[in-house]
Amino acid sequence: MVIMFEKNLSRVVETIHKTPGNLRGFVQAKLRDLKTGAIFEHRFRSVDMAERAYLEDTEMEYLYSEGDMHHFMNNETFEQIGLSGEVLGDAASYLIPNLKLKVEMYEDTPVGIELPMVVELKVVETEPSIKGASVSNQSKPAKMETGLFVNVPPFISEGDVIRVDTTEGKYIERAK
Predict the structure, then answer these.
(1) Do 132 and 100 belong to one domain?
(2) How do beta strands 100-106 and 56-66 pair?
(3) Tens digit of pLDDT for each residue in 91-104?
(4) Does the pLDDT at position 106 exceed 90?
(5) Domain range for residue 151?
(6) How many other β-carbons are positioned within 10 Å of the β-carbon of residue 130?
(7) Which CATH number does the domain housing residue 126 bear?
(8) Which of 4, 100, 111, 119 is the most buried (most CB within 10 A)?
(9) DSSP for residue 86
(10) Do 169 and 124 share a structural domain?
Protein backbone atom coordinates (compact mmCIF):
# COMPACT_ATOMS: atom_id res chain seq x y z
CA MET A 1 0.00 0.00 0.00
CA VAL A 2 1.17 3.53 -0.74
CA ILE A 3 0.17 6.39 1.57
CA MET A 4 0.73 10.14 1.78
CA PHE A 5 2.97 10.63 4.84
CA GLU A 6 4.11 14.15 5.69
CA LYS A 7 3.23 15.28 2.14
CA ASN A 8 5.41 12.58 0.53
CA LEU A 9 4.47 9.29 -1.09
CA SER A 10 5.56 6.38 1.09
CA ARG A 11 5.20 2.64 0.51
CA VAL A 12 4.29 0.54 3.55
CA VAL A 13 6.95 -2.18 3.69
CA GLU A 14 6.01 -3.90 6.94
CA THR A 15 3.51 -3.45 9.78
CA ILE A 16 3.25 -4.85 13.29
CA HIS A 17 0.18 -4.29 15.48
CA LYS A 18 1.08 -4.02 19.17
CA THR A 19 -1.08 -3.75 22.30
CA PRO A 20 1.33 -3.47 25.24
CA GLY A 21 -0.37 -4.39 28.53
CA ASN A 22 -2.96 -1.86 29.60
CA LEU A 23 -1.81 0.82 27.12
CA ARG A 24 -3.58 1.72 23.89
CA GLY A 25 -2.73 -0.28 20.80
CA PHE A 26 -0.63 1.10 17.97
CA VAL A 27 0.81 0.03 14.62
CA GLN A 28 4.57 0.12 14.15
CA ALA A 29 5.11 0.61 10.40
CA LYS A 30 8.23 0.46 8.28
CA LEU A 31 7.87 2.90 5.37
CA ARG A 32 9.93 3.64 2.23
CA ASP A 33 9.93 7.23 0.98
CA LEU A 34 9.36 6.90 -2.78
CA LYS A 35 11.29 10.11 -3.58
CA THR A 36 14.47 9.40 -1.66
CA GLY A 37 14.25 5.61 -1.27
CA ALA A 38 15.01 5.97 2.46
CA ILE A 39 13.40 3.44 4.80
CA PHE A 40 12.16 4.68 8.17
CA GLU A 41 9.82 3.58 10.94
CA HIS A 42 6.79 5.40 12.32
CA ARG A 43 4.38 4.55 15.12
CA PHE A 44 0.73 5.16 14.22
CA ARG A 45 -1.66 5.57 17.14
CA SER A 46 -5.31 4.55 16.79
CA VAL A 47 -6.35 8.21 16.32
CA ASP A 48 -3.79 8.94 13.56
CA MET A 49 -5.10 9.16 10.01
CA ALA A 50 -3.15 8.19 6.89
CA GLU A 51 -4.36 9.15 3.42
CA ARG A 52 -4.09 6.30 0.93
CA ALA A 53 -2.54 7.25 -2.41
CA TYR A 54 -4.38 5.65 -5.31
CA LEU A 55 -2.08 4.34 -7.99
CA GLU A 56 -2.91 3.57 -11.58
CA ASP A 57 -1.49 0.28 -12.88
CA THR A 58 -0.21 0.31 -16.46
CA GLU A 59 0.65 -2.95 -18.23
CA MET A 60 4.23 -2.72 -19.52
CA GLU A 61 7.06 -4.91 -20.74
CA TYR A 62 10.60 -4.83 -19.38
CA LEU A 63 13.09 -4.14 -22.18
CA TYR A 64 16.63 -3.74 -20.85
CA SER A 65 18.87 -2.17 -18.20
CA GLU A 66 21.54 0.43 -18.81
CA GLY A 67 23.63 1.18 -15.76
CA ASP A 68 21.21 1.93 -12.92
CA MET A 69 18.27 2.68 -15.26
CA HIS A 70 15.74 -0.02 -16.17
CA HIS A 71 13.63 0.61 -19.29
CA PHE A 72 9.99 -0.41 -19.81
CA MET A 73 7.59 -0.09 -22.76
CA ASN A 74 3.83 0.38 -22.79
CA ASN A 75 2.52 -2.29 -25.19
CA GLU A 76 -0.44 -0.16 -26.31
CA THR A 77 1.20 3.23 -26.92
CA PHE A 78 4.82 1.99 -27.36
CA GLU A 79 5.90 4.79 -24.99
CA GLN A 80 9.09 3.99 -23.09
CA ILE A 81 9.99 4.99 -19.53
CA GLY A 82 13.05 4.47 -17.36
CA LEU A 83 13.06 3.69 -13.65
CA SER A 84 16.13 3.85 -11.44
CA GLY A 85 17.32 0.95 -9.33
CA GLU A 86 16.57 3.09 -6.28
CA VAL A 87 12.87 3.19 -7.21
CA LEU A 88 12.71 -0.54 -8.01
CA GLY A 89 14.64 -1.74 -4.96
CA ASP A 90 14.90 -5.54 -4.73
CA ALA A 91 12.45 -5.99 -7.62
CA ALA A 92 15.28 -5.27 -10.10
CA SER A 93 16.71 -8.74 -9.31
CA TYR A 94 13.71 -10.41 -10.95
CA LEU A 95 13.70 -8.47 -14.24
CA ILE A 96 14.34 -10.48 -17.39
CA PRO A 97 13.82 -9.19 -20.96
CA ASN A 98 10.23 -9.35 -22.29
CA LEU A 99 8.75 -9.80 -18.78
CA LYS A 100 5.24 -8.36 -18.67
CA LEU A 101 4.40 -6.53 -15.45
CA LYS A 102 2.46 -3.61 -14.03
CA VAL A 103 4.09 -0.21 -13.52
CA GLU A 104 2.44 1.80 -10.74
CA MET A 105 1.78 5.44 -11.69
CA TYR A 106 0.84 8.35 -9.42
CA GLU A 107 -0.30 11.45 -11.31
CA ASP A 108 1.45 10.17 -14.48
CA THR A 109 4.73 9.62 -12.62
CA PRO A 110 6.04 6.03 -12.26
CA VAL A 111 6.63 5.14 -8.61
CA GLY A 112 7.23 1.38 -8.71
CA ILE A 113 6.40 -1.96 -10.29
CA GLU A 114 4.23 -4.92 -9.43
CA LEU A 115 5.98 -8.16 -10.31
CA PRO A 116 4.19 -11.38 -11.27
CA MET A 117 4.01 -13.88 -8.38
CA VAL A 118 6.45 -16.26 -10.12
CA VAL A 119 9.28 -15.69 -12.61
CA GLU A 120 11.40 -18.22 -14.49
CA LEU A 121 15.14 -17.63 -14.14
CA LYS A 122 18.15 -19.50 -15.53
CA VAL A 123 20.82 -20.80 -13.14
CA VAL A 124 24.23 -19.51 -14.26
CA GLU A 125 26.39 -20.60 -11.35
CA THR A 126 26.05 -23.29 -8.67
CA GLU A 127 27.87 -26.28 -7.22
CA PRO A 128 27.74 -29.44 -9.35
CA SER A 129 24.56 -31.49 -8.98
CA ILE A 130 24.66 -34.64 -6.92
CA LYS A 131 23.83 -37.87 -8.79
CA GLY A 132 20.69 -39.53 -7.50
CA ALA A 133 19.76 -36.54 -5.34
CA SER A 134 16.10 -35.86 -4.87
CA VAL A 135 14.09 -33.33 -2.91
CA SER A 136 15.43 -33.14 0.63
CA ASN A 137 16.09 -30.68 3.44
CA GLN A 138 19.47 -29.76 1.97
CA SER A 139 19.91 -26.79 -0.32
CA LYS A 140 22.76 -24.99 -2.04
CA PRO A 141 23.12 -21.39 -3.24
CA ALA A 142 22.66 -20.72 -6.94
CA LYS A 143 23.28 -17.52 -8.89
CA MET A 144 20.56 -16.61 -11.38
CA GLU A 145 21.00 -14.78 -14.72
CA THR A 146 19.95 -11.51 -13.02
CA GLY A 147 22.52 -11.79 -10.23
CA LEU A 148 19.97 -12.95 -7.66
CA PHE A 149 21.04 -15.74 -5.28
CA VAL A 150 18.45 -18.43 -4.47
CA ASN A 151 18.79 -21.57 -2.34
CA VAL A 152 17.97 -24.55 -4.53
CA PRO A 153 17.80 -28.35 -4.03
CA PRO A 154 20.98 -30.38 -4.71
CA PHE A 155 19.71 -31.81 -8.04
CA ILE A 156 19.63 -28.37 -9.74
CA SER A 157 22.62 -27.69 -12.01
CA GLU A 158 23.94 -24.84 -14.15
CA GLY A 159 21.77 -24.13 -17.18
CA ASP A 160 18.54 -25.28 -15.52
CA VAL A 161 15.56 -22.92 -15.57
CA ILE A 162 13.70 -22.67 -12.27
CA ARG A 163 10.58 -20.92 -11.00
CA VAL A 164 11.19 -18.39 -8.22
CA ASP A 165 8.59 -16.84 -5.89
CA THR A 166 9.06 -13.05 -6.20
CA THR A 167 7.50 -12.22 -2.82
CA GLU A 168 9.96 -14.30 -0.79
CA GLY A 169 12.76 -14.97 -3.27
CA LYS A 170 12.45 -18.74 -2.82
CA TYR A 171 12.79 -21.70 -5.18
CA ILE A 172 9.44 -23.24 -6.15
CA GLU A 173 10.22 -25.86 -8.79
CA ARG A 174 12.20 -26.65 -11.91
CA ALA A 175 10.57 -25.20 -15.04
CA LYS A 176 9.52 -27.73 -17.65
Answers:
(1) no
(2) antiparallel
(3) 889 999 999 999 98
(4) no
(5) 118-174
(6) 14
(7) 2.40.50.140
(8) 119
(9) H
(10) yes
* 167 alpha-carbon distance from chain centroid: 6
Given a cut of 70, whether residue 132 has pLDDT beyond it is no
Instruction: Note the pTM of the prediction, 2 decimals.
Output: 0.72
Give CA–CA dist 76/112, Å, rounded: 19
Alpha-helix residue ranges (DSSP H) falling in 20-157: 85-88
Residues 91 and 133 in one domain: no
Domain shared by 77 and 101, yes or no: yes
Q: What is the DSSP string of the chain?
A: -EEEETTEEEEEEEEEEE--TTSPPEEEEEEEETTT--EEEEEEETT---EEPP-EEEEEEEEEEETTEEEEEETTT--EEEEEHHHHGGGGGG--TT-EEEEEEETTEEEEEE--SEEEEEEEEEPPPPTT--S-S--EEEEETTS-EEEE-TT--TT-EEEEETTTTEEEEE--
In angstroms, rounded to a whole number, what is the distance separating the alpha carbons of residues 115 and 169? 12
> What's the structural domain count of the chain?
3
**pLDDT: is 126 or 129 the higher one?**
126
Separation CA 1–CA 103 (nearest Å): 14
